[in-house]
Amino acid sequence: MIVVTGATGNVGRPLVGALAEAGEQVTAVSRRTVESSVHVRSHQADLAEPESLRPALDGAKALFLLTSPDFMANGRLGEVMKVVGAAGIQRVVLLSSQGVGTGRHPSDLEDAVTQSGLEWTMLRPGNFNSNTLQWADSVRAERVAAAPFGDVALPAVDPVDIAEVAAVALREPGHAGDIYTLTGPAAISPRQQAAAIGDALGEAVRFVEQTRAEARNRMLGFMPEPVVEATLDVLGVPSPAEQLVSPDVERILGRPPRTFAQWAHQHVAAFR
After folding, report:
1. Helix/strand/coil (H/E/C) assignment for every residue in the chain
2. Which of 24, 57, 160, 211 could be 19's S-S partner, Cβ–Cβ 3.0 to 4.6 Å?
3. Which phi-psi region, left, alpha or beta, contains residue 223 (left: φ > 0; alpha: ψ -120 to 50)?
């Protein structure tokens, strides 16, 4: 049995699917219920209440741990890890952030896992391709996409690639103590992402560059302020390390990471 937290998200959903397709029994954990199947059972829990997770861990051997931005700001993962350890989980794969490795984000979450005494693997993705779904409404209505730092390029990653790396780390031996930085195959700017969505649609999408203040005000609606500031710093003034393409996706999966253009074509319905 493998437990997947954040099972309804952009990474959790394809991870549950990949594990089930491989024949694994999966417990899909989220704040809302997930559709069950032959290989998947649903469990409603909130990491902010660690005891709510305990029933999902019964009989499980591995755990994919994904925390929300609000939990990152206010949660105490150490308490969650006590419940996890007591349940007999052997392996934990944590969805962390590239910002931990570059010093943008605190290491508290990773520290709680590495100090748990359990076998662990860290996944450190950077910018997600799916972040551009925030443009869906404006692209559908006006064929407009707005973002700050329009010409600053980062190697954004497909969440499905993250999920497939996680599935390998959860199922196969040889990943204990490893830290994987997960990126796409090439750096791409917001302006270029808007153009790629336009190509997928067959219609031009106009890009509008926001100020940092405008972007900050919007992001504060769904992210804690420290996370917003760190994210804007990365988007606006990335370090050389944050602009590098990592070989880890290809090394683990045996294929190159998917391009943003591929992602845009696969998700074009969201923008129509």
Report:
1. CEEEECCCCCCHHHHHHHHHHCCCCEEEEECCCCCCCCCEEEEECCCCCHHHHHHHHCCCCEEEECCCHHHHHHCCHHHHHHHHHHCCCCEEEEECCHHHHHCCCCCHHHHHHHCCCCEEEEEEECCEHHHHHHHHHHHHHHCEEEEECCCCCECCECHHHHHHHHHHHHHCCCCCCCEEEECCCCCECHHHHHHHHHHHHCCCCEEEEECHHHHHHHHCCCCCHHHHHHHHHHHHCCCHHHHCCCCHHHHHHCCCCCCHHHHHHHCHHHHC
2. 24
3. beta
Burial label for 90, CB within 10 Å (0-12, 13-18, 19+), is: exposed
Angle at 262 between CA 259 and CA 265, to 5 degrees: 150
* pLDDT higher than 70, residue 197: yes
How far, in whole angstroms, is CA 169 from its chain's centroid? 15
Tens of pLDDT, residues 200-214:
999 999 999 999 999
Domains defined along the chain, listed by start? 2-271 (3.40.50.720)
HSE on the CB side for 188, CA within 13 Å?
26
> What's the whole-model pTM score?
0.93
Please state, in angstroms and rounded to a whole number, the distance separating the CA atoms of residues 171 and 93: 10
CA-CA distance, 31 to 4, in Å (whole number)?
12
Phi and psi torsions of 41, nearest 5°: -115, 150
- Could you give the count of Cα atoms lying within 13 Å of 29 in the half-sphere of its Cβ? 25
pLDDT-wise least confident of 173-187, 224-238, 255-269:
224-238
